[in-house]
Amino acid sequence: MPQPPDPNGVFLNIPYDEEFRSLYVAYIVGLCQLDLIPHLASEIPGGERRLSRIFQLIKSCRYSIHDLSRIEVSVTATAVPRFNMPLELGMTITWQNLHPDRHTWFVWESEPYRLQRSASDLNGTDPYIHNGTAEGVLRELCNAFPREHMPSVPKMLDVYHFANLSLDTILYKNGTRNPYDRSVFMELCWLSKTLADLIRLGGPAI
Amino acid sequence: MRKPIHITAPRPTPEEWAKHFPISKASEKALQALVEEFKAGLSHQKELPVNSIEPEKRRKRASAA
Description:
heterodimer, A: 206 residues, alpha/beta, Rossmann fold, five-stranded parallel β-sheet, 7 helices, 47% helix, globular, B: 65 residues, mainly alpha, 3 helices, 62% helix, flat
């Protein structure tokens, strides 16, 4: 039998690109506010094959979020659609079918009905629509993961704005421009969790 | 169909968080400075009376009257 998953672990299957940066911060801030533990493929040190590492991470998490909002043809001259996110979703669906009690997956999109055009085999799956905004991500996280004593979306947004501004400091400190680097991800999670605790313990009522 | 779930698992303990997101003492110190900045913003927000949100607008309205 496989190891039981972390009951608060959430694997984030998201695009690692500059345009997604603000939504990436919103996912991390929102999950930390809900006392869920975000996980990214980049957090596992290299060595093993990337796909194996990703599958290990999916198996270790009770939930996964698959954001398909940026499955599109890239703008480079040799335009290629992005297949990483659907590939990881496919692996997750198989895992969940084999072990239905161990994993629950969610699909996220930016627009209603876009999923029906990009992946019609997923018809019958209602995606969470974030409208491409940080506020939308936070709102839909609250819809997807209801639990006792949840913060309000405006409170979450306060933390999001601060964390988003702080990201440049974190990037500079780590000598990178990539917000998805392991060290940056770890520090962003640490900061988000600490701010979430502060808000919970005595932030102003919003 | 959206799958309705309600999370009932116990929240992660501080030790679990620390295990998942290990950062160096130096990083913790630098991040703590950001936390202090956030705290300062929070206490400033607390001090503001409700009607001080848009002082500029109120000033204009008063001078127009």
